[in-house]
Amino acid sequence: MDKIPNLQSLRGITELKYVNAENVTRYRAIMRYVYQQYQKLNYWLKPEQIYEGLLEWDLHKNYTLEQCQIDLTQLAEWGNLTAQHDGERAVTVEEYLRKKFRYLLTPYSIEIERMLESLESIRGYGGSLEPTLFDTISDTLFKIRENAGEYEPAKALEYWRLLFSSFQTLHEASVDYIASLQTGMAEDLMATDSFLLYKDSITHYLQDFIQALQRRSYKIEGNLHQITSGVRDLFLGAVVDDEWRIPKLEQLVTKEQYLNELLDKWNSLSRWFLGDHDSISDSVLLERATKEAIVKVVRSAVRIQERKRSNISRKQDLDYLGKWFYGIQDLDTAHKLSAYVFGLFSARHLQGEDSRESDSKEMSMWKERAIPRTIRPRNRKRSERHDIKAVIDNSTLKEQFRDAFLIKQKQELEFLIRMVDTGSISISEFETIRELTRLQLLAWISRCNASSTNSFQTSEGVKIELSHPPDKERALLHCEDGTLELINYRFRFVVINRKAWTDQVAWFNEL
Questions:
Q1: Can you give the pLDDT at residue 94?
Q2: What letter does residue 102 receive in the DSSP assignment?
Q3: Mean of the pLDDT values across residues 406-425?
Q4: Which residues contact 337 (CB under 8 A, 6 or more apart)?
C-alpha cells in the first residue's frame, strides 16, 4: 500500500515563501550565497560577510547593510535560517548597541536550494537505460538471501543502500528516457530527414535494453520469491541496527518508524518486479513502453523514407522507358522488359468460369477470351453472415519459428565468442564466412559508424570498437554466397560487463 500522509506532512511550507515573495531576488540571492558557502564548509555566517558577498555579485543597486539585516531577520522568521547570538567582543559603540547574530541554513532550506539548483540545469527529461543495474540488484538480493540474517556490522546497511539506489536509478532513469521520446521536441526530430542518422542507434539501444530486461529480470524475480518474510525482516532489522550505530546528534524518527519506511521501500521494489494481485508489475509495463518506443521510431523512419521517395521525380525515367517500349517491335521482348522493369505485380484472386476456347498449352494468355467477373463495391453495408470457424492451432508453427530463432541466436553468439577470444581482427583476415555472419558483421559496422565514438556495447556485455585504415585500404570479404569488397575495417572486442558475458557463455553451453 502507498504511504498514507499525516497532517504534519500536509502542512503549509513557510520555508518556500522566499521563492515567490515580493523581494524575491534579494531573498534568493542571500539564500544562494549562504548555500554556496555551506558547500564550502562555511556554516555560520555574519551579516557583514553575507552583505560583502552580495556586493561582489553586483545584483542590487543601493543595497545597504541595514536592508540585508532586515532580509536575514525575515528569512529566519520563515524558518530558512537559524539565527544564533554572536558573542564576540564589540569593537565599536555601534556594534555594542546593535544585537549581533550569525546565521546557518536549516535542513529544509538546504534541500530547497539543491532542488532549485537542479531545476536550473534541466533541459529535458534526460534519463538513460542502464542494463547493468539489473545485475547489481540481482547480485545484492542473492547476497541478502545467502547470508539470511547473519550480517557483519555495517554490511546490511551497505547492501540496502546499493540495492535501493540501483533500483531507484533504474526506475527513474528508464522512465525519464522513455518519456523523452514522447516530447514535442522528439516528435519534431522524428519528422526530419536528420532523424534517419539516429534511427539505428536508438533502435539498437532500446532493443539491447529489452533483451537485458527479459534475460536478467527473471533472476531478480527468483531471488525475491526465495526471500521469505522472515529473512526480509532479519535483513531490515540489521539495516536499522547499522543505521543506529552511526552517531547522530539529531534523531527525528524512532526505530519503529524507520523500520516501517524500509518496509514500504522494500514492498515498492518487490511490487515493481513482481506486481500484485490487482495489477501487473512495472517491469512488464516498462518492457511494453520500450517496445512501443521502438515501433514509434521505426514508423517515423518509414514515413520519412516514404516522403522522400514520393518527392523524387521519375519523369525522365518514365520518358526513357516509354520510348524503349515504343521502339520494341517484338511482343515477347516487350513482355520480358516489363518483367525486368516492374517485377511481379501484386496478385488479385478473381473467380470465374473456365471457358477456354482451346486446350493448347502453347496458346498465350493474351489470346484468351476475357472472363467477366462482377466485383462488389466497397460500401458500409453489413456483409452477409458467415459461419464461425475455429481458431487455427499454430503451436507447431510457433515452435518451428522458436527453434529457428534459437539456432540463429546460437550461431550469432558462437561467432561473437570466437571474436572475443580473438580480441582484434581485420576484414582481410577473415576466412570464408556464412551469410548470417556477413549480415552480423555489416550490422556491427553500421552501428559503429553511427556512433560518435565508433563503438557500441552489445547486450552480452561486449564492447565492439571499429577503426578505419589510414589509407582507406579495401579488402575482399569471402562469403558462402559471394564475395564482398569493402573498406578493410579492424574490429576490437573487449568484455565490459563480465557478469553478463559469463551468463551468455553459460547459456550457450547449455544449448
A1: 63
A2: E
A3: 89
A4: 324, 325, 328
Give the β-pairing of 455-457 and 462-467: antiparallel
* In the block, residue with C-alpha cell 524507520: 258
Parallel/antiparallel/unpaired status of strands 490-495 and 482-487: unpaired
pLDDT of residue 38: 86
pLDDT at site 14:
83
CA atoms of 448 and 465, how far apart (whole Å): 7
- At 183-201, the pLDDT tens digits run 666 676 666 766 666 777 7
44: cell is 555560520
Contact 485, 414 (CB under 8 A): no
Tens of pLDDT along 359-414? Answer: 777 777 777 777 777 767 666 666 556 667 777 888 888 889 888 888 888 888 88
Question: Nearest 5°: phi and psi at 224?
Answer: -65, -35
pLDDT at 364: 75
Backbone torsion region of residue 358, taken as left when φ is above 0, otherwise alpha when ψ lies between -120 and 50, otherwise beta = beta
Full-model pTM: 0.51
pLDDT in tens, 65-93: 888 988 998 999 998 898 887 766 666 65
pLDDT band at 491 (very low <50, low <70, confident <90, very high): very high
- 78: CB partners within 8 A, 6+ apart: 14, 15, 17, 18
All three cell numbers of 261, joined, read: 519506511
Is the pLDDT higher at 134 or at 343? Answer: 134
Of 211, 196, 200, 193, whose CA–CA distance to 447 is shortest?
A: 200
396 alpha-carbon distance from chain centroid: 35
For 114-140, the three-class secondary structure string (H helix, E strand, C coil) is HHHHHHHCCCCCCCCCCCHHHHHHHHH
Q: What angle do CA 411, 413, 418 make, to 5 degrees?
A: 95
CA atoms within 13 A on the CB side of 471: 3
What count of other Cβ atoms lies within 10 Å of the Cβ of residue 140? 21
How far CA 247 is from CA of 38, 99, 252, 465, in Å, comes to 22, 35, 13, 49
Residues 6+ apart with CB under 8 A from 268: none
User: Is 91 buried (19+), middle (13-18) or exposed (0-12) by CB count in 10 A?
Assistant: exposed
CA pair distance 143, 280, nearest whole angstrom: 27
What are the DSSP E strand ranges found in 57-170? Answer: 81-85, 101-105
The answer to whether residue 217 scores a pLDDT higher than 70 is yes
Supply the angle between the helices 65-78 and 47-57 in degrees, to the nearest 10: 110
Q: What is the pLDDT of residue 1?
A: 45
Please give, one letter per residue, the 3-state secondary structure of 460-499. CCEEEEEECCCCCCEEEEEECCEEEEEECCEEEEEECCHH
At 422 the three-state DSSP class reads helix
| Strand, helix or coil for residue 41 | coil
Look at the block and give the residue holding cell 522494500. 266
DSSP letter assigned to residue 195: G
